[in-house]
Protein: Agmatine deiminase family protein
Organism: Salinicola corii
Amino acid sequence: MTLRLFPEWHPQDAIQLTWPTPTSDWAPLLGQIEATMEAMVVAITRYQPVLIVVHDDRLRTRLGARFTSLGVDASLYHLAVAPSDDTWARDHGPIAVERDGRIELLDYVFTGWGGKFAAARDDALTRSLASQGVFAAPVVSQALVLEGGAIESDGEGTLLTTSACLLNPNRNPGLDRDAIEARLGEQLGIARMLWLEHGHLEGDDTDSHVDTLARFCDPATIVYVRCDDPRDPHHAALAAMEAELKALRREDGSPYRLLALPWPKACFDPDDGHRLPATYANFLIINGAVLVPTYGDAADFRALQVIDQAFPGREVVPIDCRAVIRQHGSLHCLTMQLPRGSLDPALFQR
């Protein structure tokens, strides 16, 4: 049997989004976050389709009209109705693997990042989509608590993650490092796990998801966030993470090619002043392009340059994510890629 976890750069059928609802925590920012997600849909559909989960038929009708007005071809999106708690498709969407040459979509347990937020509807969302015939690949439920933002795959059997998240007792109490490695080896085909012990972002609810800190761009390249300001409270932990990354080795013993992302100036919530988790590592790889979060910051341009260096041959597309970080996530957190062969092709036939 062969089993592997796809890397994000594997060819994709679509990107999954879950649209915000007026009864969620997005209510005070609904117009802003909808404008951001509309910009994402327009950008993504230049390259591939999107699967958009909406909470009712009324929203489906409204978004269909809105996308028509924005010039989005109807064959490039599908609106599926299913109840949800929030918008973070990265963590409640399915995780795709290839088993003996066929795709399986693994449906892990989602608990709202260790019970911090209501998540029952989000946890049921993948099964709801499966019951509607959205997926061409089988959906396989897993008993393990696991979020897509917590893991990074090189597509060759190596997984990058953080101890602060995967070993947090609020996820899978009773499972130690060896047990987690064994489970992910069996379920995802992981042969090696690279654990980061340092690194965090203030305002992050996820207990240090790796997709806010360090990302594979190809099997030999990792981009990561670096704080150059010794006065910033993140400086020491991110310097320690940088040292860890420099010490990591590929399976053949060679070091990784490391590219440092710049550090944006501190962003604060305008209502209560708490710090928001702005990070350029939360980019999204799609067919032919990379969407990169920006924050109206002087460092935005340098971040785009680094991503361009990491992804030769792909277009780099900035997306303003100042509204997204108000709810403590960013661009990657809003999305889940669905590899080629995951979806029923009839969804995009108009």
Notes: The mean pLDDT is 97.
